Amino acid sequence: MNMKLEEFKQKLKSEDFSSLYIFYGEEVYLLEHYLSELQKKVVGDMMTEFNLTVINKEPEFNELADVVESYPAMSDRRLVIVRDFDVISANADFSEKAEKLFSDMPEHCVLVFVYSNIEYKPDKRRKLYKVFEKYGYAVDFKKQSRTDLISWIKRRFLANGKDVSSDTADFMMYYCGEIMQQLIPEIEKVSAYAKKKEISRADIESIASRNVTSAVFDAANAVAEKKYGEALSVLEDLEAQNEKPIPVLALIAQQFRRLYAAKLIIERGGGKKEVMELFDMRSDYPARLALNAARSMSKVHLRRSIELTTRADEKLKFGAGWEVLSTLIASIAAEE
User: Fold this and answer.
1) 96 by DSSP, 3-state: which?
2) Angle at 235 between CA 336 and CA 199, to 5 degrees
3) What gap in Å lies between CA 125 and CA 215, rounded to an integer?
């Protein structure tokens, strides 16, 4: 059955282990962190060469069964980790044998299937899925909430002797992305670069690697605010970075649809909260940008801009290149 991270943390704390887990989710940093914590609780630091087995390939069933059933050395438990093997979709022979093993796991073993480089999209009709649902737990390491992620960013900076405000941490989430694994090296770079103890937005913009999504959204917002030269400059930078025009255009089209939705929200008397909920935003920075940009364009102009992005997409799919995006900006400006 599915288990929320908070529930897993509580069970880990009380050492209430299951014998069977699947770890998956976008937030690989958290996954690896709690896998390490599980290892500490299950086998500790002693005799790990005997009580910890990590399998980094598709296992043969007999190989897996041997390590699962082997008794630990001078310990109550052993831990077996199988990485990037889609156990739910295993072949018929493996599945048939695994059903019996997983339904009656030895008490001394904790077996974890880790989906870090492959996607976890289980076929719920499979017998092994039903076995996991009955005897094991699938723990989803999702992206963190805005509040949790801002607190985490603050702690990471503090560990480097730096302070950062909630608003600046929120900006960093927008600028660099919301995945912890991606944020860690950027926090380290900004910490080393910043001369003052208090991290500023300028520090982040000066040294951190910018998320493509935020760059494209800024370009679309610049168009909405009639800053066409600024929008073209962002697109030129993306081309110089060897980004592909089709996914960039897809993000531009997405942002114009967001701006149109934000316009409707404004007309209904709504605000930032509604925009964040509608588009599942963890940072409120892009929500504020979208609302400001939406106020700068009429609904007619926004609808026309969305139509123009559709035409540009057709041209790109027939072999055109980056010049289509420059023409798109000029076309939107001409429709003003």
Assistant:
1) helix
2) 110
3) 42
Cβ atoms of 21 and 112 within 8 Å: the answer is: yes
Main-chain dihedrals φ then ψ at residue 55, nearest 5 degrees: -110, 115
Mind listing the pLDDT tens digit for each residue in 270-322? 998 999 989 888 788 889 989 999 998 999 999 999 999 999 999 998 888 89
pLDDT tens digits, one per residue of 70-89: 999 888 899 999 999 999 99
247: left (phi over 0), alpha (psi -120 to 50) or beta: alpha
Taking residue 27's Cβ as centre, other Cβ atoms within 10 Å add up to: 19
Which of residues 68 and 2 earns the better pLDDT score? Answer: 68
**pTM given for the model:** 0.81
Alpha helix locations (H) across the chain?
5-13, 28-42, 48-51, 61-69, 92-103, 127-135, 146-159, 166-176, 180-193, 201-207, 212-224, 228-240, 245-267, 272-278, 285-294, 299-317, 323-334
Question: Which pLDDT value is given to residue 36?
Answer: 95
DSSP 279-320: TT-S-SHHHHHHHHHHTTS-HHHHHHHHHHHHHHHHHHHTT-
Encoded tokens for 183: 């944020």
Tell me the two tokens of residue 98: 């695994």
Taking the C-alpha atoms of residue 326 and residue 233, their distance in angstroms, rounded to an integer, is 10
Q: Which two tokens stand for residue 79?
A: 């831990």
Q: Which residues contact 6 (CB under 8 A, 6 or more apart)?
A: none
CA 106 to chain centre: 35
CA distance 157 to 163: 6
> What is the pLDDT at residue 236?
92
pLDDT one-digit tens code per residue, 179-189: 999 999 999 99
String of DSSP letters for 9-53: HHHHHTT---SEEEEE-S-HHHHHHHHHHHHHHHTTTSSHHHHEE
End-to-end CA distance of the chain: 54
At 122, is the secondary structure helix, strand, or coil? coil
